[in-house]
Amino acid sequence: MSAALANLRVVDFSKFLPGPYCSWMLADLGAQVVRIENPRELAKQARVFGWDKLSVEQRSALRASDVFARNKRSVLIDPGAVEARQVIIDLVRNADVLLEDYRPGVLAGMGFGYEEMAAVNPRLIYCSVTLCGQTGPYSNKPGHDPIALALSGALSRMGDRPERPAFTGTPVADLLTGSNAVIGILAALQARVTTGRGQHVDIAMSDSAMTLIASTMARNPDLSRLKPRGEGRVDCGLWKTRDGRYLCTTDMEPRYWERFCRTVGREDFIPAQLDVSRRDEIVNALSAIFATRTLNEWLQILAEADTQFAPVYEISEALEDRHNVARGMVRNVQSASGTVVRQIGSPIKLSATPAAEPAAGCLPGADTRIVLEELGYHKATIDALLRTGAIAEAANQRATDSSGDA
Asked: Cross-referenced Pfam families, in alphabetical order (predicted)?
């Protein structure tokens, strides 16, 4: 059975996490994603992450394990090279979606901006993912996930130390932005059914991060009375057990809080669920109680009481959890070399059009020749383009000098 987006064609210029996350979600739902991988950008990333010190075999293994490269084909091409222009035009002419994450104006400066590409393909959905969007005073501001969280006010609420905020440890704004890009693309595709035309989808990390403060604003109309960071509810907690492990509880509903208090032997805390003046007393008492038993002992006790709880897993433990495995969120994927890599599955479950079977990512340029052949390019033309350095194959990865900005 075909996946939901089996006929959707995506040309993906993106490099940083929000963009590849978006195209991964689309690819897992069946979209035909072709990654435009710029050799100059790859060289920059290799220096940043140390990949330039790896052998071809090591880089191949790294790419195969990368979930964000899954179910995508790769064309190694320099958008700034004059000889590459027609190849990109031909790809866009046959595409439904173009996804890019260059700073505003950069891709347009190469001749591949929204207006130019819409002229080539009026039905094209052109999605731009940037830190602060295509408009506004900060539109040209550089930065990554923490900057978006800082600008949105969300970072000010993260962490449990009143004296300073803390990073989350996971790229929250990146992943939320990637999800919003998927939503924006699908909304634009639905609008195209009515209008017959594509449009520009402008997704900003700072906008996405702003949505993280929505619930705080809704529950605190007077922000001048907002509780200091770290002074959260007593009915949600992280508790250290006797064996040094951690347990998470979220018994916010009154009936669960009552059940929780009776289970830990502190019925006197039941009426104090929302009593801010007793917060420190309750937290200290509960911390002492949870320190008396091991994690496994508490898991059994709380399960029998039917309260809200979970062990705080290490990543390796989460990948072994029977529920995560049963839900298909842990997949063994075979790479081109025959080795098996473990990846997470698709979080979207559709009853009639399930996600595509996972195919491990390949080295940049592994599909250059076949993609061009599908566009109608003959072998002699492809070989000539390879000689110019405007395009390359996986076995011939080399950066090219070009005046195009990236």
From this structure: CoA_transf_3
Which of 285, 319, 353 marks a domain boundary?
319
**Residue 99: inside a domain, yes or no?**
yes
Instruction: Evaluate whether 155 touches 228 at the Cβ level (below 8 Å).
Output: no
* Low-confidence winner among 42-46, 204-208, 353-357 (lowest mean pLDDT): 42-46
Residue range 81-118, pLDDT digits in tens: 999 999 999 999 999 999 999 999 999 999 999 999 99
Residues 105 and 25 in one domain: yes
Kindly list the distances between the CA atom of residue 205 and the CA atoms of 98, 158, 288, in Å, as whole numbers in the listed order: 18, 17, 41
Tokens linked to 345: 């599955």
Q: Side chain identity at 76, as an amino acid letter?
A: L
Q: Per the structure, how many domains does the chain have?
A: 2
Residue type, 96: D
Could you report the per-residue pLDDT of 166-212, keeping only the tens digit for each?
999 999 999 999 999 999 999 999 999 999 999 999 999 999 999 99
pTM greater than 0.85 (yes/no): yes
| 26, 240, 249 from 291: Cα distances, Å | 45, 6, 15
Judgement on whether residues 258 and 158 belong to the same structural domain of the protein:
no
Tell me what the pLDDT averaged over the chain comes to: 94
Considering 319, 347, 381, which residue would you say is the last residue of a domain?
A: 319
For residue 393, the 8-state DSSP code is: -
Q: Residue 315's domain is classified under what CATH number? A: 3.30.1540.10
